[in-house]
Amino acid sequence: MSLSKYITYRFLYILNKATGLTFFIIAMLCYKTTNAQNKPEFNGQVSAFGNYAPDNTYDGLLGGRYIPELQYNIGLDSTKNIDFEASANIYGTAIFDLFDESETDGDIDPYRIWGRYTGEQFEFRVGLQKIDFGSATILRPLQWFNQIDPRDPLQLTNGVYGALLRYYFLNNANIWVWGLYGNEKTRGFDALESYKDHPEFGGRVQSPLSKGEIALTYHHRTATNTAIEQIPENKFAIDGKWDVEVGLWFEASHTNSTKNIGDLTNQTLINGGIDYTFGIGNGLNVVTEHLVSTFDEKAFEFSNNAHITAATLSYPLGFFDNLSAVTYYSWETEDFSFFLNFEHQFKHFTGYFMPYYNPEQQQGIAQNELIYTSSGPGLRLMLVYNH
Questions:
Q1: Are 267 and 191 in contact (CB under 8 A)?
Q2: How many Å separate Cα 144 from the centre of its chain?
């Protein structure tokens, strides 16, 4: 057996062990029937990282992650395709005090496992997948199904189990319809976890408008907390984006719980943003957003307001180097966060040098459980290899 075939079979075995799903059988059948026109593609991403944050109980962190990915495509005709993707999150970390104790963690989790059927103007995808939409880039009211942290250069996020149908009209309008099941973790600005044994469903309609686009979105889920097992919840949103002399956008969402759970009964989030690339040197791109959020017992009462302003800056130093920064400021707590990232492309690797400062209570920016975030000053180093 060739090395590439052995690696593929071994990856499928690990993936099946981690998920217990029948995608193993599907992928094996695809692999068995491979011909010159349809070959599986096996690639992946390896990352090694270290973190030092002296203000934390454990000031040091060392870790590694491997995300192997198997893709397979079946071309039915010139416009229709069936394709599969399966990937795993294989990771290990160690947090430690330089002069005391340490803790380790590691596991193999499914990362993406989906099958997709695409036509000339539609796409249907089912399985563990990433669902992402909206106009904002930093403080995102519409981050309903992922945990993408704008400070993470790899943009890692857990997926959701479900089915997604998208249809694209010839005038660039599009419709999304989805149904989810078996998801329980919080996502984005969720105050409560989802009730795993109840399905979620929703949809989105997006249409061109002048020099941009506007969209309406709805989602229903059942939330849960320690006091009430099942709390039906409805999310409504509107967002738009326009490209004029500058980029302009807004996102607004409202979440209503059908049961009274105090100040968490209603949540309203309103975001406005602007971006522009200044003609300085190689081009300095600046993005600024402001988020107004409120949690109230009565809808639109705005009695518990919070204001957060955030900005990102990106400047290409050269063909192999880039400098970027993410900052945000909470007007209520007067907390300031700063994250600087220097990226260098080596011949086979990408290196990241990331000094930062985070307050104890981090608000506004989605915090991804795949990425270790710590308070106070710190330094993070990372090497990434894609094969």
A1: yes
A2: 10
Q: With the CA atoms of 114, 118, 121 and 127 taken in that order, what torsion angle do they form, in degrees rounded to the nearest 10?
A: -20
Compute the distance between CA of residue 308 and CA of residue 299 in angstroms, rounded to an integer: 21
CB 381 within 8 A of CB 353: yes
Report residue 208 as tokens: 């061109």
Amino acid identity of residue 288, one-letter, is T
Q: Which position has the higher pLDDT, 127 or 32?
A: 127
At residue 326, does pLDDT exceed 50?
yes
70, pLDDT greater than 90: yes
85-142 pLDDT per residue, tens = 999 999 999 999 877 788 999 999 999 999 999 999 999 999 999 999 999 999 999 9
DSSP 332-361: TTTEEEEEEEEEEE-SS-EEEEEEEEE-SS
CA distance 115 to 131: 14
Q: Which residue has the tokens 């260098």?
A: 344
88: nearest Cα among 107, 109, 104, 72: 109
